[in-house]
Structure formats: structure tokens, C-alpha cells
Amino acid sequence: MKNLNILFAASEIVPYAKSGGLADVAGVLPKALRALGHDVRVVMPRYYIVDKEKYGLKPLDGPLGILMGVMGEEWGSVYEGTLPGSDIPIYFIEHEGYFGRKGLYEEDGFGYSDNDNRFIFFSKAVMQLAKKLRFKPDVIHANDWHTGALPVLLNTTYAFDPDFENTGSLMSIHNMQHQGKFYKGAMDVLGVGWEHFNHNELEEYDGINLLKGGIVHADIINTVSHKYAQEIRTAEFGCGLEGLVDAHAYKLYGILNGVDYEEWNPSIDPYLAKTYDAEDMSGKAVCKTELQKIFNLPQRNDIPLLGWVGRLAEQKGITLLSSAIWHLMKMDIQIVLLGAGEKWAEHFFRDMAAKFPDKFGCFIGYRNDLAHQIEAGSDIFLMPSLFEPCGLNQIYSLRYGTLPIVRATGGLEDTIENFEAVERSGTGFKFYDATPEALIGTATWAIDTWTYDKEGFDQLRCNAMQKRYDWDVAAKGYDALYRRIIEGRLSRRQHWE
Ligand code: ADP
Ligand code: GLC
Fold first, then answer.
1. Ligand 2 centre from 85 Cα, in Å?
2. pLDDT of residue 497
3. Does residue 68 share a domain with residue 197?
4. Beta partners for 58?
5. Ligand 2 binding residues, C-beta < 6 A
6. Within a domain: residue 277?
7. Fewest Cβ atoms nearer than 10 Å: which of 146, 190, 210, 454?
8. 87 CA to middle of ligand 1, Å?
């Protein structure tokens, strides 16, 4: 089968810049696609934190002129590198005004007020970069609202551009909650014509919605799990776009994310006090003691340790946890938490750590090493999300033998099998209702299993550690979607022309 030219654009990519799982995905999926033989080119913004020297980035000759509608022409430059551990070219769009800042999207909890211009600029730069490189993509792969303008630009500004004559687009939705909604004036910057500012394309409540534009204009859309693809067609999960998504369900697919087992593997993890694997779990006990040391908790092996890693965002079920924790603190257990996000939650969990210094430890901030140490040192992993497009932490937990407690939604539902006490089958503990009571009930079940049914718990651990969610499986799914896009391309052209 013919190898394809794929132009892959994302707003964050590991190891350069990361705020969540999108960066993990964008750092590994291109490699899995490359392994299938495709010519993949990756593009992201050159934020201030992307260290040019450390990554050996070299400038491409000449500036990149971007027409920003009423704002006139703006100039960017491009730096080129190679995605670590591969031969994949990665390009960084540099614009001091837009990207030379401390944060990716926000600072101190406040989103940048010009995020519309920043990511419209970035999307246009991606198109211009392809022309500059004389790279004719078969598919432009956009990820989340930041690159939602790409499918729109392809069907409008670039509709008759010979360089994109054979190009189709895929819009991957990693999170429906963030849609890129702005004042409609952004239409004058996007410059695709006000005729596209209508309820069936970019308009929503008299503002512009970039993800909506991407969903409508892309040849195919996908979410990062099957369950979430179904869920976003409903009012509970569609974040206002459920009707639109449902109308486009004919081109909606779900592909479960994979995991980078070179990074998340307890048998080779350099951050652990002692490595381990299913055949010899003694290292896990060492990691537990070490974790208790890190969080200044009593070093006890006779009680279960529950871990949490994740953004302190409503999505992640922080309201459930903050209500449930009072009850959980009455039990003979320990909990450690690593996260940053909503200020009230940061304060709340800090306060809890002060109130229960022997039972609750927290680190408010972002630390990759500690994330690994929590995955390894905990017995049970907490992930009570209200919604979860895929979720990576619960999959990491499986590999580390840290049994996840999850709410049965999105990717959590797709990746975790509920414990069945008689058969001793399953890989974790699930609850359904988004209530603190349900979380408490399921946590008690998991804790009791750890305490009173050691054999059952060990068997579950074994099941979990054997599970694999490899990227090559996901990449084959994307490969199939790309080919479907190429087949359907002619009809797409006719539709928008
Ligand atoms: P989301 O993308 O919604 O945040 P995922 O589970 O897909 O959720 O991915 C989260 C990623 O970010 C994981 O790799 C996780 O380890 C990491 N992460 C989240 N918060 C932190 C933190 N405070 N410190 C270190 N890593 C974190
Ligand atoms: C989003 C989702 C998360 C998913 C990640 C990568 O941030 O919240 O569930 O795993 O994207 O696709």
C-alpha cells in the first residue's frame, strides 16, 4: 500500500511542552505512523520553554509571511528538529509576540486574551510551512481546537491551491470541553469570509467556535476512545455541540490511545527507587516505602496507599474526591496526590495535608518524576473523572500493578474491566454514579479487597500488568482513517466548492 504524506499539527508535544495527555499522544503517535512507512511531518508552536539549544533546533531559511486578515501580514520563523528517537522532522513556528511567553495557553490561571489570534496564526503558519517545504500532504491531522482552523482553511482559503489539491483532513478531538470560543471579530483575522459565519459552520451564539469549524469541515473526525465517541453525541458530554456531532456521526470514529511503554514501564523506569515487574514484585514494596518517605507519611506496609496524578480540573472528579476524602480519612489508609489546576482545589488539598499529616500527602505542581513514583509506589490509583475522552494515567497504572478506581466513562470504561470476585477477573474497580457516595463505596471495596482478599488483589494485579495498549494498534486505526479520507476526498471537494 502507498505510503502517505501526513502533516501532523498539535499545540503541545512531549518532550518539548506539555500540559496534559495531548502532548503524550502527539509525541508518540507520529512515531508509530512512521513505523508504518508514512512520511510524517510534525508542527507545533515554539513556546518560550522550548529550548532550541537543548534540542538542537536549526532555523529554516527565510521568514514565514502569514496573512492575518484585518491585522495585515505578520511574520514568523521556523525552527527544525527531529522528534527524539526517530527520523521525523518536527517544525516549530516562532513568533515572539504570540509564543514567547511563560505559559502555553494561560498564566496564573488566566487564559491569554489573544488565544484566538495565536492559534489562528499557528494554523495558517502550518499551511504556509507545507508550501515552503514543498510538502504535499495527503492528510492534515489536526488535534483539538487549537488547530481546528486547519480543516476550515483547507476548504476555503486553500480550496483551489494546487499544493493541496489532493489533501484531506482529520480532526482529532481529545477533549470536547475546550472548544476555542471567541468574539466573532476573530472571523476578520481568520479571513475565510463572513459567509462561513453561520450556525452550520463557525458561528455559535454569535461568537466563533474553532472546534466547531474543524468538526464541520474535516473529512473525518475522531475521539480518543470508542465510548467517548458515543458520549459526545449526548447532552451530558457534548458540551453544547452534541447536536452538531450527532449530525456528523456518519464521519465520527473512536480510536483508543496507546501508551509509550518505553517511558511507562516499571522494569526500566529510571525514576524508581527499585524497578520491578510481574515476576518479581519486591521492588514495588521499596517504591511504596520511598513514596511514603517523599510525602513524609509513616512508612507502613500494612495499609493500602492510594495515589492520584492529574490536573485539578472539574473533569477529573475533584469535587467527588474533595467530598469523599473526609470519609476516606477515617479509614486506616494513606493517600498521596500530585496535581495542579483550580485554585480552590489546590488550597483544599493543601489544607487536608495539614489536617491529616499521617494520612494525606500532596504536592501541588507539575513533576514528571513524582508522577512515575506515585504510579509505582501506590497500591490503588484514583481516577474518578466526570468525563474522560481516553485518560492515560489509568493505563499507566495497569502497567505498574496499581489498580485503578475509575468512573465508568469514556476511555476509563473502555480500558478498565471491573473486578469480579468469584472469577478473580478484571483489572480495576469501577463505579457509575458521579456521586461521592459511589466513590466512597467503590474505594471501600478496593481497600477491603487489598486488606482481606490478598490473593484476589494479587490476581487482579497480575491481570492488570499483562494488559497492553500499544501505539501500533492505534496507528493502524489512524492509517485506516487516512485511507478513508483519501477515498472520499473528491466528494468533499465538490461539497464545499
Ligand atoms: P489529561 O490529558 O486530561 O490531563 P491524561 O490522563 O490523558 O489526562 O494525561 C495526563 C498526563 O499528564 C499524564 O501523562 C500525567 O502523568 C500527566 N500529568 C498530569 N498532571 C501532572 C502533574 N501535576 N505532574 C506530572 N504529570 C502530570
Ligand atoms: C485529553 C483528555 C484525555 C486524553 C488526552 C489525550 O486531554 O482529557 O482523556 O487521554 O486528551 O488524548
1. 23
2. 55
3. yes
4. 80
5. 20-22, 25, 174-175, 224, 257, 388-392, 411
6. no
7. 454
8. 26
3-state secondary structure of 48: coil
- The single-letter code of the amino acid at 187 is M
Ligand nearest to the CA of 339: 1
**For a substitution probing ligand 1, which of 311, 378, 402 has the most ligand atoms within 8 Å of its CB?**
311
Answer whether 139's CB lies under 8 Å from 170's CB.
yes
Q: What is the tally of structural domains in the chain? A: 2
Q: In ligand 1, which atom is closest to the CA atom of 316?
A: 3
pLDDT (tens digit per residue) in 484-495: 999 987 556 556
**pLDDT beneath 50, residues of the chain:** none
Out of 13, 14, 22, give the residue to mutate to test ligand 2, the one with the largest number of ligand atoms within 8 Å of its CB. Answer: 22
228: in domain? yes
Same domain, 423 and 477: no
CATH classification at residue 164: 3.40.50.2000
- Calculate how far, in angstroms, residue 390's C-alpha sits from the geometric centre of ligand 2: 5
Helix (H) or strand (E) holding 350: helix 343-355
- Sign of the torsion formed by the C-alpha atoms of 26, 32, 38 and 39: positive
Q: List ligand 1's pocket residues with C-beta within 6 A.
A: 20-22, 24, 309-311, 338-340, 366-368, 371, 390-393
Residue range of the domain that includes 396:
282-468
Find the 181 Cα to ligand 1 centroid distance in Å. 24
377 and 484 housed in the same domain: no
Domain match, 214 and 313 both: no
Please give the full DSSP string across 124-193, using - where no structure is assigned. HHHHHHHHHHT---SEEEEETGGGTHHHHHHHTTTTT-GGGTT-EEEEEES-TT---EEETTHHHHH-S-
Are 197 and 345 members of one domain? no
The answer to the question of residue 48 being in a domain is yes
Residue 480 lies in a domain: yes
CB contact set of 488 (below 8 Å; sequence gap of 6+): 168, 219, 220
41 - beta bridge partners? 7
pLDDT tens for each residue of 163-184: 999 999 999 999 999 999 999 9
Residue 119 is predicted with a pLDDT of 98
According to the model, what pLDDT value does residue 97 have?
97
For residues 191 and 305, membership in a common domain is answered with no
Asked whether residue 370 falls in the same domain as residue 483, the answer is no
